[in-house]
Amino acid sequence: MSAVPADDERAKIPPLTLFRAFMSIGLSGFGGVLPFARRELVDRRNWMTDTEFAEMLGVAQVLPGPNIINISVWFGTKHAGALGAIAAFTGLCGVPLVMLIAIATLYGRYAGAPRVGAAVDGMASAAAGLIIGTGITLFRRAKPNYRSSAVLALVFVAAAFLRVPLLLIIAVAAPLGVFAAGKRA
């Protein structure tokens, strides 16, 4: 794996290249593309580091809208301005949108078939596994201190077991995470 390019080199990603990269991401996942985005942007293209990806994801999670769309727009803007944002967003959503319309039409017709239900359940499990795997990978590579790990544990317990509303989790965990990261720096 080659080193991550300097910031000035990364700023020169043409919109068509952004479109193709995000189209590849959009076509890679079913039920969630975050793991594929990380692999494409960090491992394959070396456009950002794991830390940069984790930071961008952290901000994307507190913004309204789907995380991957927030990342595509932010990343595209950062590297090619407004045209880059449009290219990344369109690449991510364009072809999958056409496929979604076709699949939704078929699903509407065959939703009652037992095999269709089983297939949907299987895809949901696979998507959850990919998200968990990406989280574990980011956690390992970030090498968080004990304060950051404690915030992670609190968020996990609050969301998974206590069913605390997401907005309340964000309102409490965001300042705690900033405090934990500030102590680390």
From TrEMBL:
GO molecular function annotations of the record: chromate transmembrane transporter activity
InterPro entries: CHR_Transporter (IPR052518), Chromate_transpt (IPR003370)
Location(s) in or outside the cell: Cell membrane
Cellular component aspect of the GO annotation: plasma membrane
Chief location of this protein within or outside the cell: membrane
Membrane topology listed for this record: Multi-pass membrane protein
Membrane-crossing residue ranges in chain numbering: 18-37, 82-107, 119-139, 151-181
Keywords from the UniProt entry: Cell membrane, Membrane, Transmembrane, Transmembrane helix
Recorded family membership: Belongs to the chromate ion transporter (CHR) (TC 2.A.51) family.
Protein's UniProt name: Chromate transporter
Natural source organism: Roseiterribacter gracilis
